[in-house]
Amino acid sequence: MTRVLGIETSCDETAAAVVDDGTAIRSSVVSSQVDLHARYGGVVPELASRAHVELIGSVVARALADAGTDLAGLDAIAAVHGPGLAGALIVGVSAAKALALVAGKPYVGVHHHEAHLYAARLEDPTLCPPLVTLVVSGGHTMIVGVGTDGAYRPVGATVDDAAGEAFDKVARLLDLGYPGGPEIERVARDGDPAAILFPRPMLHDGADFSFSGLKTAVVHHRRDHPEVPVADVAASFQAAVVEVCTVKLLRAAAATGADTVVLAGGVAANAALREAVTAGAAAAGLRAVLPARGLCTDNAAMVAAAGAFRLAADGPTALDDGVAPGLRLPDRSAGW
Ligand code: KG4
Ligand code: ZN
Q: Residue 74 domain-assigned?
């Protein structure tokens, strides 16, 4: 049995979790800083770093207590080392290294998006390749394929804004709260998704995404038709994002021969996207694995899960290995 403590501080969530064998969650604590940043309409990096410093000790202590373990009971300590906000990453990585040193256990640096990929294994430990995962978060939008050889390969990515970023920007435009995704989803429930036919950028163009034109289309529509109810605008915008994401995910499955489609990242918590992917996968004869909403948004259980597999595949990360705010997802074996 491999028991890993995972730590996540790449953005505005301070999180720690204990996971056994990369699949069984023993504890998962997420302390959100949403209230702290809400009044600024976005994450303020300096405030995030300070809040992580204040919270990290108690969040880790609670994760260990909830799991009924202590440092001696761990086999490794994993933390996200990139990509993310530099000052925020440093807090989690420094904490993980300090705990690793004190406990005499290995430290494992984890890529944030690789961690998102592993959330689905926590949902379904039997999940196996070939599969394609749509990672849709505030910072990134990409499709990653995992082949039968266990190697993962980026299939497509956004050429401009991330899907979550588009949700957040459109929410701000519509005077909704922060973070924008859940607000748009809430307001859209009372709207007509067919009220406005917003553009579906790059719909017929391979596996890459573009969301900045869609955002601009909403800006222009708002300016030209201020009388249209916000609910209709939100529902129509959401429908455009959902259609593009679903079509591209299913197309990537067909192109790579995957028999399973997976969702990951904060936007994967969106009910309209979950319904569309579930229905589309069923119609195409594919299996769909949709992690619980709490595993889609940033959490540390996915970090511990990825850390366990990364440790088995590559061994520990050197303690002089720093944070990498712009880290790209490498093209290599995921250890599936
Ligand atoms: O993965 P995540 O928690 O953090 C990053 O790694 O970025 O994703 C956060 C993003 C935000 O842009 C937020 O607006 C979006 O996920 N999000 C949603 C929903 N819940 C969170 N977008 C659409 N619908 C939701 N229900
Ligand atoms: Zn994330």
A: yes
- Centre of ligand 1 to C-alpha 298, Å, is 8
**What is the rounded CA–CA span in Å between residue 217 and residue 5?**
44
Which of 167, 172, 174, 189 has most ligand 1 atoms within 8 Å of its beta carbon, as the pocket-test mutant? 167
Q: Are residues 139 and 260 in the same domain?
A: yes
Q: Is residue 122 part of a domain?
A: no
How far are the Cα atoms of 10, 14, 299, 301 from residue 63, in angstroms, in the given order? 18, 12, 12, 10
Digit-coded pLDDT (tens) for 279-318: 999 999 999 999 999 999 999 999 999 999 999 989 999 9
Q: Evaluate: CB of 179 within 6 angstroms of ligand 1.
A: yes
Establish if 320 belongs to a structural domain: no
pTM of the model: 0.94
Cα separation, 119 vs 309, whole angstroms: 12
**Is residue 137 in contact with ligand 1, taking CB distance under 6 Å?**
yes
Q: Which ligand 1 atom sits nearest the alpha carbon of residue 271?
A: 26
Same structural domain for residues 133 and 49?
no
